[in-house]
Specification:
Length: 366
């Protein structure tokens, strides 16, 4: 992998989708081939791929792979319905999954023959991927002025940004959402330093965000999840930018567990708290995030163990609590719109409110 932008999902050939196995970063760069719909479901469930836009893209190719299985005679024609259902049940919170499956349903069921369905599904999945690349690039274009403003105001001193989880290119296809303005700021010669929350229990910050920032030569410091408040109290954070898995029409933001606490600390310390998101992460069908966004609960062993590289170079999990201690593993939390300074989308930056969002996306006005 080079300094240049890379992709997280690609076609190896017309019957094989390849993804980076994100479970082993930053220690091993391993790729996995997906040749069946089950492979796509499994990749999403096991978090081989993760991050809202990438989950959606993987599911899109999953539909295409299901049609290929039908074409080969490995599955009956009706399997396509089961494929949609299994993909929809792979993870509950990121709305991009359901958005992508809706788009794929239209592409598939508008066709008459299997050959036409295959062609249409292939084109649509590829388009979903290409659209995400351009969308994330535009999030950077609109987010960059926020960083430029701080850089101008502070007399061209380093801009300190805090982020939680990984909403970088590894969660998307290229660019990333929160990283797009950061990478574009770097290209403009702005000094940036990123505080990276480790993001227990899966450590997406330590494993993935730190990996990406290293590859891009962005200065960064890893912190434990509870450090952000202290840094903000001491003026060491200029800006918080996080991603999201689902944002409601009134601007409530679901993101990786712990995001809400960062928003509270930012609010208490007058630190701007922005959320970068493609419009594919907006769920226009719901309003109240606390009541309406399904929060994923994962296996308790993710909390009870830590996975990493031993001195021997081997990768291993170690238990960090008594074997019998039960653990709760909520994957996401909801930050109410009132704590969000603004939403950075591909169409511009807006307040986290229905009015703000529908000004940018008037087609969703009611
Ligand atoms: O559980 P994950 O790793 O899929 O959670 C990812 C996040 O919470 C990201 O912040 C979000 O999906 C945005 S990715 C652009």
């Amino acid at each position: 992998m080079t300094q240049e932008r890379f992709r997280t999902i690609w076609l190896k050939d017309e019957i094989t989708v390849e993804v980076i196995d994100q479970r082993f970063l930053p220690h091993r760069f391993i790729t996995v081939e997906l040749t069946t719909c089950f492979d796509a479901v499994d990749a999403i469930k096991k978090m081989i791929v993760r991050g809202a836009p990438l989950i959606g893209a993987t599911a899109s190719y999953g539909v295409y792979l299901a049609l290929l299985e039908i074409q080969k005679g490995d599955k009956p024609t009706e399997y396509i319905n089961q494929a949609f259902e299994e993909l929809a049940n792979s993870r509950p919170t990121a709305v991009n999954l359901f958005w992508a499956l809706d788009r794929m349903k239209k592409a598939v069921f508008s066709q008459n023959t299997l050959e036409e369905q295959l062609k249409s599904a292939f084109a649509e999945a590829n388009q979903i991927v290409e659209d995400d690349v351009e969308t994330c690039r535009m999030i950077g274009v609109h987010g960059l002025p926020l960083i430029e403003e701080i850089w101008g105001k502070n007399g061209h001193q380093t801009v300190n940004i805090l982020t939680h989880c990984n909403a970088g290119m590894l969660g998307c296809i290229e660019w990333g959402t929160i990283t797009s303005p950061i990478y574009q700021a770097k290209e403009k010669g702005i000094d940036i330093h990123v505080w990276v929350d480790e993001t227990r229990p899966r450590n997406q910050g330590a494993n993935l965000t730190a990996f990406e920032l290293t590859k891009h030569g962005i200065p960064h410091t890893l912190i434990v999840d509870n450090t952000g408040g202290h840094l903000m109290q001491h003026g060491m954070v200029d800006l918080v930018i996080v991603g999201t898995d689902r944002t409601t029409r009134q601007g409530d933001v679901a993101n990786k567990i712990g995001t809400y606490l960062k928003a509270l600390a930012a609010n208490d310390n007058n630190v701007p708290f922005y959320v970068a998101l493609p419009s594919t992460t907006l769920d226009w069908t719901i309003t109240d995030g606390l009541k309406e966004i399904p929060i994923e609960q994962r296996d308790q062993n993710e909390v009870k163990t830590v996975f990493g590289k031993l001195d021997t170079g081997e990768l291993a999990s170690v238990l960090i609590c008594p074997e019998t201690t039960p653990a709760a593993n909520y994957g996401f939390d909801v930050t109410p719109a009132r704590l969000v300074t603004g939403l950075i989308t591909e169409r511009g930056v807006c307040p986290a409110s229905e009015e703000g969002l529908t000004r940018l996306f008037p087609e969703h006005k009611r």
